[in-house]
Structures
1.
Amino acid sequence: MAKDLLILTTGGTFDKRYPEGQWVTEFTFPPGQESAVTEILRRARMAPEAFACEWLFAEDSTKITDAQRDIIANRCASATQRRIVVTHGTDTMTRRIDPETGKVAATPNTAATIAARKLDKTVVLTGAAQPAVLRDSDTDFNLGLAIGAALMAPPGVYIAMNGLVAPWDAVVKTVVGSFRKFEA
Amino acid sequence: MAKDLLILTTGGTFDKRYPEGQWVTEFTFPPGQESAVTEILRRARMAPEAFACEWLFAEDSTKITDAQRDIIANRCASATQRRIVVTHGTDTMTRRIDPETGKVAATPNTAATIAARKLDKTVVLTGAAQPAVLRDSDTDFNLGLAIGAALMAPPGVYIAMNGLVAPWDAVVKTVVGSFRKFEA
Amino acid sequence: MAKDLLILTTGGTFDKRYPEGQWVTEFTFPPGQESAVTEILRRARMAPEAFACEWLFAEDSTKITDAQRDIIANRCASATQRRIVVTHGTDTMTRRIDPETGKVAATPNTAATIAARKLDKTVVLTGAAQPAVLRDSDTDFNLGLAIGAALMAPPGVYIAMNGLVAPWDAVVKTVVGSFRKFEA
Amino acid sequence: MAKDLLILTTGGTFDKRYPEGQWVTEFTFPPGQESAVTEILRRARMAPEAFACEWLFAEDSTKITDAQRDIIANRCASATQRRIVVTHGTDTMTRRIDPETGKVAATPNTAATIAARKLDKTVVLTGAAQPAVLRDSDTDFNLGLAIGAALMAPPGVYIAMNGLVAPWDAVVKTVVGSFRKFEA
């Protein structure tokens, strides 16, 4: 069952690190095509033959472009696997509440882009409130949650965050940063 | 969806700690009815209204009795929730390979006890290779994996370990301690 | 002996955290007058009667002003304790090599400000390459290093970083961010 | 200054790990001559040329023999370095209070063995309340504390534990496991 699993990584808070040097004020992504997912799956003692993991790019989700969203959706479409987990920044993973208006923001989001392809696959997006390198991170739990859901859910595009798993269009990112059910 | 979730804790490696004092050689469970599950779900930023969590007892799984297995199965049966996660020691969670014979050991196991009740519920058992208090623990991932599966899988009794989710009787604990698919 | 110890906290990488919410790109300091030093000394199981700890302010060391440097030096001067540890951002803790010129930068630094007071006290400055909230942080070690030195060294102003303890004017921060001996 | 530092590792709680497999109830030391000290000094970003580190053996301090204590003292005597840190189990690092009598126990201890050599060197013993592999460990702090003291203290044999540094015969391990000043 698990051999059918593909994990795609695209950066986001999940993979942010604290750079060393002088006069540092912003986060960075690690050099090389390396995601924290590798280390988490080692900690999880997951059998290497049970999954494939691919680094697509590392981008802050506030800066992800339409072209990058297409890269993700295209890879989901071309994958031989029918169960896919995508790690992604949380600001444009799915819809969010606009802090100014209190309503759903018009920002483009990756879940919608994937859903538009109407793939007959189970795709679960997850991310992080705190980077994997932090002691108090939610990355290990979230990746587990997404994989558990991806292995068991019927085809569709889902969000797995805050211990919640639901279809992408039934969830929003709130102003304080957590994901909640959303009755449109 | 998530409001339907009950988490039961029963000890095992998941909840073991390192005692302080003098002449210490064995692990202990924390004083009080407290499981590491609470801390992990806080780290996961899971909404409190999304689940109920109950501490049943804290026992090493090599010492769990038939009476204790019945406590677990009874609570699964009486629960109003239809989606249940059980944290449990790994030696008697499901069947294991006997290191002496290389065949499935005859030791009683909790998954079998729950399955015998033929409940119309989704019950997922999980545990840990390394206690939650360790830096390199698999508890956060495993609890996420079990919750993701419990929220999405049809009724049945499942094991969620090593990034694998499968019906309890299709999995064994190997001699080196990991869980693998098992064709009976 | 240890009752003579005062710990002053002033922010820096040591106390930086990763903020949650939307569109986050910079680090923050925790709300309230709270330093990670408290948590580290709890982990260290240090007896509360052995030290006093004071939060002076929380500032990125690239932004510390002359007025803030005076606050630190004044508190060292007024303290009844003769052994003092100061947690501080690393960019202006002592002198640094200018990445442009490869020579010692002219930036003001806090060690020089304290040393100018010619106090008959042992003052040890320390900081962090990675914030205390990170798994791979050097804060626990560095705070221990600084306290061990502060309890044992004769009066003077010292830097304790990278496992090195030396008089402040015999150390520089290098371009890659580590502290090394410097023959002026 | 720091080039004069030798670190000797001898096991103890500091280096204990949680074994995986089946029917596990006791702690183990890692296979190979490897101490957690290596990983901690990497986290501390300590310059490799600043110290030498030697693994002598890995033993629970309740089982250390007179012969093993002599190995430690002999190595301190033969070392070219004049500043030495020893990681050691806490039960026989120095004197302890006997839980039965409430008085100092007659158990042999390593600090006394080293002190009897009357070396003209600074030797600092440290250990751990929680193994280095635990999230809440005191090992990083304690190793820093011992190194800071070893680099600065005059010749003598010292204990560095619980944020305290003092001559070995002025400290005892209490019944609850912490180290405190002791007026003989």
2.
Amino acid sequence: MLDRVFGPRRARQFHRLLHNGKITLLCLVLTIVVLRGNLGAGKFGTPEQDFKEIRETFYQYRGKRAEPRRVLEEIQTTTEQTTSSSSTNNYAEFDINKLFVDEEDDVKKNPNEPYSIGPKISDWDEQRGEWLKQNPNFPNFVNPNKPRVLLVTGSSPKPCENPVGDHYLLKSIKNKIDYCRIHGIEIFYNMALLDAEMAGFWAKLPLIRKLLLSHPEVEFLWWMDSDAMFTDMAFELPWERYKDRNLVMHGWNEMVYDEKNWIGLNTGSFLLRNCQWSLDLIDVWAPMGPKGKIREEAGKVLTRELKDRPVFEADDQSAMVWILASQKERWADKVYLENHYYLHGYWGILVDRYEEMIASYHPGFGDHRWPLVTHFVGCKPCGKFGDYPVERCLKQMDRAFNFGDNQILQMYGFTHKSLASRRVKRTRNDSSNPLEVKDELGLLHPAYKAVKVPSS
Amino acid sequence: MLDRVFGPRRARQFHRLLHNGKITLLCLVLTIVVLRGNLGAGKFGTPEQDFKEIRETFYQYRGKRAEPRRVLEEIQTTTEQTTSSSSTNNYAEFDINKLFVDEEDDVKKNPNEPYSIGPKISDWDEQRGEWLKQNPNFPNFVNPNKPRVLLVTGSSPKPCENPVGDHYLLKSIKNKIDYCRIHGIEIFYNMALLDAEMAGFWAKLPLIRKLLLSHPEVEFLWWMDSDAMFTDMAFELPWERYKDRNLVMHGWNEMVYDEKNWIGLNTGSFLLRNCQWSLDLIDVWAPMGPKGKIREEAGKVLTRELKDRPVFEADDQSAMVWILASQKERWADKVYLENHYYLHGYWGILVDRYEEMIASYHPGFGDHRWPLVTHFVGCKPCGKFGDYPVERCLKQMDRAFNFGDNQILQMYGFTHKSLASRRVKRTRNDSSNPLEVKDELGLLHPAYKAVKVPSS
């Protein structure tokens, strides 16, 4: 028929053209299909969304730093738009943040109104002494040389910014539960931000003050960061040494009082006595904390006044160094800077020596031979970025946990297959006379945990 | 030149052909480029990998159940091949599983050799009684009517299969720490698989037996699942009621002994006395646990013998119902099936009534008016899939946590802004006489926590 219209030759050419055109068309269609795939087939996103997804797709597959959490959320968002996630049973398809849309930060109230951590209290020792006399069933000493201690730690009410963070917080509190059970110490795990102005490293201050005033039966409050783990389950603190002190931190007198070095002490693990002196210290400590202008300005002062301090907003540790160095006569005689054992131990100098410690020593020393605490300063496992390589941080946190956990497991005849392994193996066969089996470390029923029995 | 070879017409045709060919070629190249994108540009994966990635890509963007964790790992694997993740400080770029390559499951040893949970012990009451006489400093009763209790719970040594799972495990143990601190109960959080054969819901048995035999000072062991939370912080268990019982579970006599209903009791929260009777029960309970053939076959028996039980491998709860129903005379007189309060409370019937409870009652009842425990049966927050919509599970777990947490916060003058909010607000101003402020629930210094002071 074409022949009749154009004549045979033109017809043949047209056919050829048509034939090539088919291939062209096929290719175009294929191209579009695949492209649509990347642009989120099945939904019609806004151009911005589409662009964002193309970008992500590129990042993912070009190996550039794609940020899983975000990719994750986008996948989930995509999913929510296609399937009704409110009815899915698949955790992968649900974005937890959907549950907390209302959770933006509080706005600071009146910026002119000065910050107060609470009403001034000047007679706490009298108030507390009276209460203790009235409540003999809640003694502040469990036995003549062992004070009642409350270990306080905590983490954000939100999930971590990276998925494994919460798993390490879980391991970290399990580790603390173990040490505290063995040593008869109570735990308070905080997940609430009591004072929006004191967010970050300053959040511990309002919490600590509140707990001291609410628990007169507590003699010492032991603050411990969530990224610090007990690595010596057998070490009992030398309470006798602190009988005349109100604040015990790991540190060195020269570095703090002479050098004013911002790392002359560490506030990741410290003891604070429940007394008026401590309330007064908190009153002097807290004013640098309120976030925004105050904290930033204070940071400049601290960087100027202290040795080697980088430029950043005021932190509780630098503030403490500055207070002790600048008001030595007021505080120093009640402060004990401990370095005979690791009340806080920097992980960098400890974690690679665990095997050596196992070969040469045993738990109970608390010092370089077997550190009481291994503190993962700078790893920020609950954040997006740390100051150290993530692989080293996570690997070493597991090693520290297992190193401490082996001391718990040995009580029951088990041990980790290696410091790098989550799995455990038996170290002895079960006995039909289990009570005759002695745990080498004597952690099952340690003397320092024994209770006084009424002389009846 | 073509003209000279073919003559002008053929040449023109050839040009046309070439021209169309160009378009075709362009399309093909474009297609391949985009396809290569999906196949992981920049790296040359094996065909299997490529296929896997195409599949994932399809799932992701077609809104089918894409599994973030896996997508995540693939993105990270991709990343690792291009950038050196061992030196990254970005948690998003690191795959935690890289740290545990050696961690595959143990292979069952000799399948012919019968399973044993440990050497037979027949004189535990004598052994334990002797030990208690020798160790008066570790009494099994903290006061005449309050036994020493060890709450046992735990979770897998691995991170959860979904990223938010670990965050809820963390909230769940914080919740237990709070109840146990107030009620003077010790906690053992297990993260070790002591017996590879008893993985899953059976893992608690070897653990419980080990703890009973290692801690003769413990009178009652309280098992609690990781997905159960305390929602009444003021309720103290009626210990007097159990003085002649060895096992206390939430349940109903008729449903267990008459109906043989597999949900006639719940093993997510139960009390077990430290005595020979309990060891004997465990010896009868455990044999259905070993994974593989035994557990599967036992599952068939249980589904056949019990009312309404779905078809699946043997679980510890069904096994307990079956033991009690089939050997009533042997065990029943020492078992207390509790339903006067929620030792275990199914979340489905409780979580939507929290507001009503707040309006009409107060903590301390432990029953329908204010449940002691809210147990998220079937939500499997640490798994990939739950039996219920994820959004409802997560939302209600947060409500349950906050409902319980409000009772802790009120001691310190705070409360959650709502049961749906992670944020808190003040309920009263701080006082300069903090000890005069009474916490309505009297949880700061409850009578049941008071210690006996030596009559000196």
3.
Amino acid sequence: MLGSAICGTDKHMYSGQMNLGLPGAVVTFPVIPGHENLGVVDTIGKEAAQTMVTEGPPLRAGERVVISADIVCHHCYYCRNIYGYPWCLNHRSYGDVISCKDPPHLFGGWAEMMYVLPGTFMFRVPTKLSDEEAVLAEQMAVAYGAFGRAFQGPNSKEGYAPADTVVIQGIGPLGICNAFMAKMLGAARIIAIDKSEYRLKLAKQLGVNETISLNESASQQERIQKVLNLTQGLGADLVVECTGDPNILSEGLDMLRLGGTYLVEGAFVEEAGTTISASRQIVAKNARIIGAAGMPFQAYGRVLQMMANFKDSIPFSKAVTHKFSVEDAETGLKKSIEPDSMKVVITPHLS
Amino acid sequence: MLGSAICGTDKHMYSGQMNLGLPGAVVTFPVIPGHENLGVVDTIGKEAAQTMVTEGPPLRAGERVVISADIVCHHCYYCRNIYGYPWCLNHRSYGDVISCKDPPHLFGGWAEMMYVLPGTFMFRVPTKLSDEEAVLAEQMAVAYGAFGRAFQGPNSKEGYAPADTVVIQGIGPLGICNAFMAKMLGAARIIAIDKSEYRLKLAKQLGVNETISLNESASQQERIQKVLNLTQGLGADLVVECTGDPNILSEGLDMLRLGGTYLVEGAFVEEAGTTISASRQIVAKNARIIGAAGMPFQAYGRVLQMMANFKDSIPFSKAVTHKFSVEDAETGLKKSIEPDSMKVVITPHLS
Amino acid sequence: MLGSAICGTDKHMYSGQMNLGLPGAVVTFPVIPGHENLGVVDTIGKEAAQTMVTEGPPLRAGERVVISADIVCHHCYYCRNIYGYPWCLNHRSYGDVISCKDPPHLFGGWAEMMYVLPGTFMFRVPTKLSDEEAVLAEQMAVAYGAFGRAFQGPNSKEGYAPADTVVIQGIGPLGICNAFMAKMLGAARIIAIDKSEYRLKLAKQLGVNETISLNESASQQERIQKVLNLTQGLGADLVVECTGDPNILSEGLDMLRLGGTYLVEGAFVEEAGTTISASRQIVAKNARIIGAAGMPFQAYGRVLQMMANFKDSIPFSKAVTHKFSVEDAETGLKKSIEPDSMKVVITPHLS
Amino acid sequence: MLGSAICGTDKHMYSGQMNLGLPGAVVTFPVIPGHENLGVVDTIGKEAAQTMVTEGPPLRAGERVVISADIVCHHCYYCRNIYGYPWCLNHRSYGDVISCKDPPHLFGGWAEMMYVLPGTFMFRVPTKLSDEEAVLAEQMAVAYGAFGRAFQGPNSKEGYAPADTVVIQGIGPLGICNAFMAKMLGAARIIAIDKSEYRLKLAKQLGVNETISLNESASQQERIQKVLNLTQGLGADLVVECTGDPNILSEGLDMLRLGGTYLVEGAFVEEAGTTISASRQIVAKNARIIGAAGMPFQAYGRVLQMMANFKDSIPFSKAVTHKFSVEDAETGLKKSIEPDSMKVVITPHLS
């Protein structure tokens, strides 16, 4: 393994959350964590070399690849009819759902080596991309898939369209990947909201246009007003929820213009539900709310190609702020939860 | 006037609700109610004849027309950029926002005559359509616009697609118009849920395939299970909220398949908000929720043409179950709230 | 086999055409013709029962099924990235590309029994549908896929939208299936053009609104003018080419309104190319031309469900005008080329 | 006027072409050329200040604006139903259709001052943009509108999607604006084809990834093969025609992958038509061909905002290679036709 990035899912799992959202996606301990995986092919069989790659010639030993986090069954209703999305009824994923108690055991990325099961897709990394850029592929693919679900084309004002103003609630690792994606998809302005000054400052260096700090704008109402002030009183075209806090929904909806779109990506854990206004925030606003968990697997390959073309203008690798060895994984995980980190990567061979 | 149908908005207004949803859409008493209007042109000026019609030659006296409920300013951000939708910041509408206290006073459809303001669009009624069919145009246009916002094309499984299974929560006048629209847009199966046996029975005669009665399935959980049983355990592709009850949202979301779409059209009035699960019902489900109030004005003309082509196979006119004279308007309004009515029309000249 | 409909491809093959359009789609004689297949499962293995069906429980002997005409490899670029479309680089199809010289030989539908290869999808037929309706599934699926490629949603005037006026050039079997599809997708008016009075008359009985006969309107210019006259001088929103004649393209483009869409489905055989105007008919007209061969395989299942829901209002089965036994297949094929037939079906057990 | 860029239309007009493509778009001499206009508001009336701007507060004297090239009637079928597109049946445009023989005469941009007619839209220029960047707005808007018509969303492989490989035939001013747009919309790779080494070299500096020179690849077959070699033998996802040569269509279609999209923007002038294969290049290829002339007017405002956000990473202003005074306009026009120029601008006050 070249590296495995720490994801919000890992943080939830560390804090004891066992249910990862999708039906049947339950953590089965013991696990080797790590599903945002970048590695080098060590050994590969002939059939696997052909069927595990989505594009180009068969894979060979020595090639650098991103490994899809999910394995789908190809036979259930969702696999047959909504191809590519990990909505599979028999869905498994590395680093959490797939336990390491069964041989050959090595089913997570925070490790020297990893065993890749039949049915997994792997994606060649363009030579232009550094390891630190490539290890962002999974989270970039989430953003690609999510924007893909919101997209309705440049000549439309439904869903996301290029030249839109995008608000990102929570500019941690998932938030910054959504900011990168918004930029690559032609957003005119990106506004980030967070409580970490460290993350807001870094976000500005990485292409975010405006920031709203919870330290300065402590109340929901102040933050909503700031977004309105930045948008001629109209509200944003697109708001992206990347906080993990389900109770942020009402605030996000109030930041939308009429007919605006709300992408909800982060709110993975919840108990009691959250309160919104069906009449004012949905019907009268003509709002569009889209939940996005996972991504079509083709998104991995596509974001790698886009990142290779944008690497000169977008400093993707600066989003990786910390690296830890496998031995120090727990320290790394704790760092990833602290506000003075962005993406934290576990890498067996620190460079 | 040939007729003016009673809408949910009229019912809300009668019960004292003053705020109609869209920003600035506040009832200014006194009003002459009636915004789902069908009439015959009595007198029309030369410029109006050209500019008030969206298609075909200038209007002439004697022509039968449907009159758009909304007048937009053509100059605000929404008018300029999201043309056709009544999201105008200076929006006015007949029968509620436009008071009859100002001359020439006749700004509602429950009347012998009505004055149509400059900037209003009017739509010729195809000769094939009866008055009772044509008077459904406004509510059909709401459904057309709403399905339009959900539509993503036959080869997609995002949003609504032909051959989908559609659940309609609440099969009153708005619900039945959505059922008509679903049928005309190629739905494979339509399931209606209501507490009125009268409406469920009528819905079956009008093309609904399955019904779920609140009298038989009293609990939310029973109704959800019925929908799952009808869909191989997957849930519906599209659920349409036409109840007016914001607290129905959670039930509707649980009836969706993964990646399904929820059109919220009826929940116009609300005070305390409603509770949903951001993680389970939106993110993990990859749900799409779309609020739809109003419609692009072109929808009026388009539904009239579609209804003309489908009138032999869909008995639209049977949805008009009661007609009252202007004098009996209050009796009519009360009837429209009772469970043994579908669409109620105020018509000056009872036929 | 319950029946196998004769397709344009069969007619081309009979006349000696060996190349069927898609790359690699070359007829390998000897063949048993027949790829629009309806049959009853005789024997099926356990794994096939699960993997050959796209929806619902495993298949069982005795179930009535439509058999996908195409087998794709699941591993090439197109299979991986554009799932469902038969653009597979290793594409094979029954009745033409798959020769019957190899065992077990029975690879075509004009026969008592047919052998279904691993990787083929099969689709349960709803009990409401008669055999004559179900045997139209393949050609209906072509129309579904084609309209799917043109569809841009009801609130758009790009591509096909409900309430559009649709012109169909050539109202033979492919044309009439496109007319059925247009009707089920909410077209406001369908205009059919043909040289066969028999087909035009039948088309009117099957839901076409207007017909243009080549016997009355012999010149291209007359036919274009008739379409303009029927559309306020604007041209049609959608024109569908179902003639098989590539030289019809220029006429079809002239029948479009500005920004209109042209679906080209029939022009399978050609030698010298055809002449169109890039400036006048494409750029200045802002035209959209979409070629459609084959269909996403899910379309089979979806059209069967739609047909079941529309069978009371659309008399699909009347499109099957002739049936022949396997022994009389050549007579049937000749009949299918004559102007006084619509769909011709080869059925082993004439009923 | 701050500047007015020379467009292909001006070159056609100079060479005597009188018909500009859209119905009724006929040059009426005498004209003051110039429709890609950037200026400063000198005097504006109160009503015009409100109605001529599409977003934000009323316009004021001294503000820098891009002036829409087209004036539409707002009342014809296209204005009513396909808002924003210049498909107006009473369409007029500055610098060509609108003659300067009528008072107040100043209806073209190659001048000190220009008179802007009621009904024209004007777009504020973000302060971040230089004059040389802003003067590209009209041609960028053409590209935005064209990509908008091709766009089908990131999760689709229909039409254009981010991460696609884009071929641009002809990398003159229109071609380079399409390359800029492709980059801002997330293309993974842009391949430019031209006969001018000057333009190809400049294109590489401006973000094009690969170039194919007609000097090295003289035959159509060689160029097609080069594109296939760059795309694993598949062909490009999107090809954009910006040559003005209608006979390039066949070559462009052969460069597409199965299901690829061909945007035709440049082929404005033609006499005898061009030959393509309906069967091989459209039907069997499942190709999508989209003609694009003009743009929705909102595109002006949207590209200005996008350019402001991308100006640090895309050197738009380098595309303006030559500037001439109004007195030297003819010299400028001649230079614009020569292969060693990209965008040529007429500017009254050379800076």
4.
Amino acid sequence: MHRRRDVRGQFTGAPIPADVLGRILAAAHAAPSVGLSQPWDFIRVTDDRTRRAFHAHVQHERTVFAATLAGERAERFDGIRIDGILAASMSLVVTYDPARGEPAVLGRHAIADAGLYSVCLAIENLWLAATAEGLGVGWVSFYREPFVQELLGIPAGIRPVAWLCVGPVTHLETTPDLERHGWARRRPLADAVHAERWRGRDDQLPVGSRRG
Amino acid sequence: MHRRRDVRGQFTGAPIPADVLGRILAAAHAAPSVGLSQPWDFIRVTDDRTRRAFHAHVQHERTVFAATLAGERAERFDGIRIDGILAASMSLVVTYDPARGEPAVLGRHAIADAGLYSVCLAIENLWLAATAEGLGVGWVSFYREPFVQELLGIPAGIRPVAWLCVGPVTHLETTPDLERHGWARRRPLADAVHAERWRGRDDQLPVGSRRG
């Protein structure tokens, strides 16, 4: 978990052995889900035309975001790589189907987003399993959902949740990219922990194992 | 990942050693987040009055859900335990703060929910780390968000994402509760994997490592 990174620039492009891919998908599929609905799907994308089309869309969205920045923030963003779509061995697109397990998904009547949460749990399992297998994973989120639905023929009502670039890497960085580029800094764990109520001070908690 | 379960009935109530709690929170805090925003917080709840009040609310929501069921579904649901709030050593409530990292969270301009996704990745890290430490975790989702906000003094705009019951357990079941009770069945992994496009058949993929 502490070794895992969000990878952009270290992909080698070497193929992922089929048994390795099977294991990381099985790990994702073993995630918890509300009402045991398992509302996720995984689309493996290797086709060059598809990846190029998505890459061009992401580049466009990069300019949209860049236009909201000024001065030093804009300069820093210039140096930050936001995707490894063409360099990674493959992309795995993870989707959410709200109809899975209906009617009456146990545990979803009061919280409509609970199904979406389940999909994210599967994504983290996938990411950690890939890390354990020595692969890198990079989550690209500079895209509009309707573009991805159209590109991959995803039916209306089914929502793309993540576009993940996956594959062997030369190495995993030890510091997150955005910290290395001075874009953001990690927050101390102690600031995120509260006792009994919001902002309840937690003096007892030893956070000595804090690794950021 | 394959050993992890969503626990309701096996909590012993024994205390969680402080160093163990520190490690599972550090694991959660090491999760990936959009723009390195780390938009999560963790509220440790042990107070009996708070837990009883939440438990009563969950029991009420159980009746709300039960009223939507009929016949055999209603009967099956009767036998299913939906929470371990009072039996578990503690609860950990995980929240999402959309203002964290603003303005201009890198990677969130096109997908508003990306911050919420990050919180879920932290929850899965927490869950897996707890499993590795021999603890059980149960995600309770029979509640209304405003009730939890009020109960724990969570400010408007910050959203409770999960109420997790955490603690030592007698054992972890090998089959999910909802499958043991005949409520739902796990889906074969092969059904969830597509090649290149939605419903693209993936004949190459070995899913021999499939463990459901």
